[in-house]
């Protein structure tokens, strides 16, 4: 018994022991409980789509005898029907779908959850959620199919069942009435042998009846699953997980690349430039003051020094060395030192955090302080970074004029994007008149990813 | 001026070959004798043990980890050789680096400078000589940044006192500070006394109290 147990009638149909399994009975149970549900659904749907049905009769009548003055009425009925179905349809479909999801357990062992979202409190929130989500309208589509197609198929199956029973009764009837007395379809049954053959055929048909029953139950179940199930939560979250992991990998890769560029510039261009400037400084000493060369060497020396400062700024912008070397508290301190206004930094981070977390936190504070300097008109700011239960909480507060709009500036959007890649959250409070508080939380589990 | 037994023997540690040669050239040009030039912290420790130099000039960020190997080696060397003068060169301002180093051996004969300072050759050499003479040199930018931090006990100092403290940290004497700030030497003396008092420094007549004042500053930068 290494093969897994089938989960649906479709899976069971191909098994050799299908007829002896519980699947024929489960399928039968499902198929037999369908008509009542279908009938009630059909009745209610017919009621709310009455205007459409009336309009339909008009159209059929009009086919026989054109009647132009009723066009307005026709339009009215169609619109009224649409409104009724749109407004009341979901109210039919929602409980039906709940019931059907239960009933589906007869023939489908796989777990199933509805695709409905959880609405907020209040009737209006419920209405808004339910009438705008696709799950509701897929359920209405299911209700319509259940009311229209299902009865037809059920009747087909019923006919098949009656036929089988009738065929089995043929020998009994022939035995009672005598050969030659009974008409069967196109000919008369002349011998008892013929009658028995037909009876055996009927019995065989009855025995094999579970196959079409299971087929119908399976098809119905598959349709129900397709329409009534939300996108499997497991499936969806797995996909989302994969996506966010790949985003995180990308960010990691960027971070690593920036560190590499910083290292290359530091080892290469920066070192050469410092050495060159040093040599120019020495040359300056060797050239007698007042000679024409003295001025140009002095000028070259000054320019080289300026270039050094610029290169240093550039490297800092790519990836601050101090972040790699001394960690986040030191790097935040440096940011504060370089800010245009006094910035107080408080940190409590007892361990080194993964590189991408440090990078993101640094980036957040850097951007936030830039915003403070540019827009807030603040006189002072505070930066706090605390590691609380494996979550890094970073807060930037200023005493400025407030009114920052998280959706307004690309800077803030960029921040929020960068934070969300790390599975973090960013909230902001900035009432007009201030103060402004930006709070970012970044989860940092104890076991950092290998790239850190 | 203390009598200078010529020449000063120097060991250089810098992982960039070009810059190492440049620095050796610079020091040689000013009469220092560069007895060893190495590329990492382990080699530096070996060279100091073997060559017993008067002065070590070391980069802070060196292989293999490229973080603070040079600094940790320098602190270790100061512990092992209390009289050894050390100048640490940093890529960037970081006062905790400076405090680590200044905490060693009373903070005498140490310097913490940004690497970029070496290109102003004469000033750099003046700083080196100051350290060799028993002084303390902290990069002006470190001091400037410290002064911007609004924390106790800095808050207790007046604007003027902070300015004076900054000059002390840069290694200036009272006379030099007086000249720089255009005030009388007596006024500077008064400021220094007030600074020491406000920073709760013991009133012993140890000239090193000036260094302690700088240390107090740097420690404030490290709190939290």
Fold topology:
The complex is a heterodimer of chains A (452) and B (224).
Chain A: H1 9-13, H2 23-48, H3 50-64, H4 71-103, H5 123-132, H6 134-177, E1 183-184, E2 187-188, H7 192-208, H8 210-228, H9 233-286, H10 292-318, H11 321-326, H12 328-338, E3 343-348, H13 355-376, E4 381-388, E5 391-398, H14 410-421, E6 425-429, E7 436-443
Helix pairs in contact in A: 2-4, 2-6, 2-8, 3-4, 4-6, 6-7, 6-8, 9-10, 12-13, 13-14
Chain B: E1 9-13, H1 17-29, E2 33-38, H2 41-51, E3 55-59, H3 69-80, E4 85-90, H4 95-102, E5 110-114, H5 121-132, E6 136-138, H6 140-148, H7 159-169, H8 174-181, H9 185-198, H10 209-222
Parallel strand pairs in B: 1-2, 1-3, 3-4, 4-5, 5-6
Helix pairs in contact in B: 2-3, 4-10, 6-7, 7-9, 7-10, 8-9
Description:
Chain A: It catalyses: ATP + protein L-histidine = ADP + protein N-phospho-L-histidine. Chain A: It comes from Murinocardiopsis flavida. Chain A: It holds the Pfam family HisKA_3. The complex is a heterodimer of chains A (452) and B (224). Chain A is of the alpha+beta class. Helix content of chain A is 67%, strand content 9%. Chain A has a five-stranded mixed beta sheet with strand order 3-4-5-7-6, covered by helices on one side. Chain A has a two-stranded antiparallel sheet with strand order 1-2. In chain A, α2 packs across α8 (210-228), α6 runs antiparallel to α7 and α12 packs parallel to α13. The model of chain A is unreliable at 448-452 (pLDDT under 50). The mean pLDDT of chain B is 81. With 224 residues, chain B is of the alpha/beta class. Helix content of chain B is 50%, strand content 13%. The interface between A and B is large, with 40 and 33 residues.
């Amino acid at each position: 018994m290494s093969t897994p147990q089938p989960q649906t009638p479709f899976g069971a149909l191909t098994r050799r022991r299908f007829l002896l399994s519980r699947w024929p009975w489960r399928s039968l149970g499902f198929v037999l409980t369908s008509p009542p549900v279908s009938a009630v659904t059909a009745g209610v749907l017919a009621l709310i789509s009455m205007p459409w049905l009336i309009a339909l009769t008009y159209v059929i009548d009009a086919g026989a005898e054109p009647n132009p003055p009723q066009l307005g009425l026709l339009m009215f009925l169609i619109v009224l029907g649409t409104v009724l179905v749109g407004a009341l349809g979901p109210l039919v479909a929602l409980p039906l779908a709940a019931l059907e999801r239960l009933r589906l357990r007869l023939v489908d062992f796989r777990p199933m959850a509805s695709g409905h979202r959880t609405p907020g409190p209040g009737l209006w929130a419920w209405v808004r959620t339910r009438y705008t989500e696709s799950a509701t309208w897929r359920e209405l589509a299911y209700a319509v199919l259940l009311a229209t197609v299902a009865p037809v198929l059920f009747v087909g199956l019923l006919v098949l069942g009656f036929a089988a029973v009738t065929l089995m009764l043929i020998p009994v009837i022939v035995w009672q009435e005598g050969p030659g007395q009974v008409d069967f379809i196109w000919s008369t049954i002349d011998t008892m042998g013929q009658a028995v053959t037909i009876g055996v055929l009927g019995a065989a048909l009855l025995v094999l009846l579970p196959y079409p029953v299971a087929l119908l139950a399976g098809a119905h179940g598959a349709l129900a699953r397709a329409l009534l199930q939300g996108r499997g939560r497991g499936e969806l979250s797995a996909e989302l997980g994969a996506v966010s992991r790949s985003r995180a990998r990308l960010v990691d890769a960027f971070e690593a690349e920036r560190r590499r560029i910083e290292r290359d510039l530091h080892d290469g261009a920066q070192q050469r430039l410092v050495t060159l400037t040093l040599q120019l400084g020495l040359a300056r000493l060797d050239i007698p003051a007042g000679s024409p060369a003295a001025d140009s060497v002095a000028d070259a020396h000054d320019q080289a020094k300026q270039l050094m400062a610029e290169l240093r700024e550039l490297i800092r912008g790519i990836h601050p060395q101090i972040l790699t070397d001394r960690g986040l508290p030191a790097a935040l301190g440096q940011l504060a030192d370089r800010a245009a206004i006094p910035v107080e930094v408080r940190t409590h981070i007892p361990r080194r955090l993964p590189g991408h977390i440090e990078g993101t936190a640094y980036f957040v504070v850097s951007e936030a302080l830039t915003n403070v300097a540019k827009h807030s008109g603040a006189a002072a700011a505070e930066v706090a970074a605390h590691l609380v239960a494996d979550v890094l909480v970073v807060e930037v507060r200023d005493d400025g004029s407030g009114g920052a709009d998280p959706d307004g500036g690309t800077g803030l959007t960029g921040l929020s994007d960068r934070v969300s890649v790390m599975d973090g959250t960013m909230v902001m409070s900035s009432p007009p008149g201030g103060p402004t508080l930006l709070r970012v939380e970044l989860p940092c589990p104890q076991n950092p990813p290998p790239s850190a | 001026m203390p009598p200078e037994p010529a020449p000063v023997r120097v060991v250089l540690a810098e992982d960039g070959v070009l810059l190492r040669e440049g620095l050796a050239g610079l020091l040689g040009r000013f009469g220092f004798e560069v007895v060893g030039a190495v590329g990492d912290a382990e080699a530096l420790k070996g060279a100091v043990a073997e060559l017993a130099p008067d002065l070590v000039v070391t980069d802070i960020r060196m292989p293999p980890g490229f973080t603070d190997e040079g600094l940790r080696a320098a602190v270790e060397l100061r512990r092992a050789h209390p009289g050894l003068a050390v100048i640490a060169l940093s890529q960037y301002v970081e006062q905790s680096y400076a405090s680590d180093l200044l905490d060693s051996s009373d903070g005498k004969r140490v310097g913490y400078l940004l690497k970029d300072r070496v290109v102003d050759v004469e000033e750099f050499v003046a700083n080196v000589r100051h350290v060799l003479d028993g002084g303390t040199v902290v990069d002006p930018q470190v001091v400037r940044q410290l002064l911007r931090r609004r924390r106790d006990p800095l808050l207790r100092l007046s604007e003027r006192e902070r300015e004076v403290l900054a000059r002390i940290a840069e290694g200036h004497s009272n006379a030099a500070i007086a000249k720089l700030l255009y005030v009388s030497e007596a006024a500077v003396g008064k400021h220094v006394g007030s600074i020491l008092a406000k920073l709760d420094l013991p009133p012993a007549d140890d000239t090193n109290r000036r260094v302690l004042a700088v240390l107090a500053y740097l420690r404030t930068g490290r709190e939290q």
